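U., I forgot to send this yesterday:
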Amino acid sequence: MNPLPHEFAEPLQRRTGEIRPLASRVVWHAETGSTNADAAALAEAGAPEGAVVLADLQTAGRGRLGRSWSSPPGAGIYASVVLRPDLSVARLLSNAAGVAIAEAIEDVTALGPTVKWPNDVYLDGGGGHAARKVAGILTESGMTRGATWVVVGFGINVLPAALPPQLTRATSLEAELGRRVDRGELLAGCLARLAERYRDLQTGRRDSVLDSWRLRAASTFGRRVEWDDNGRSTAGVVADIDDEGGLVVETTAGTARIVSGEVRWT
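Result:
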């Protein structure tokens, strides 16, 4: 196993108490295809809950619906965590992760991230600029020998180098701040916040997660969206999320609930 660089090892060790049960095992890759794929393989092989895969470079990083996620070396945080939750908890892990990543970014940088359904973290643009994406979350699940596992992957743009030139709707933490951001401190903060929000779900405090998500998503409520429903384009206005994390949309035909698929924000 490759040794974990001091940049990450020291803050993870210092905050072990906050991070447990996450980071029970940390696998480091200077280069890999996808941390989510690696974490899924570990989960299939019986890795314990909390195992983390961390990479400096992904050659096949991905987001939802098979989209690629730019992951140049040393420019971001690319991490995936193995969890083994109950089904009721698993349904809200994407929401919990979105809140946790936004909270950690705010803790470390004092920026105020927002979230957009289902899995994006944004920084609201100032000076007339539109909000731009700074982080993304990808949850994937499976079952091995009758036991369900979930991989929660997250990518955060830390340096401007994390952004391909064509991505005008994205940003990085250092571009927004004009100063260096410590990747190790940010990773430790993300895992600590994710552990906290995971405990919320496990101990029946799901309202805390949902209310925090709604607060950070407030700017998206009232916005118009389009999506495909059985091959037909449908449109409506975002009203809320429900208690299972589904997007609630008001349409001319009534209230619709979206739980998966592509949503186009207009």
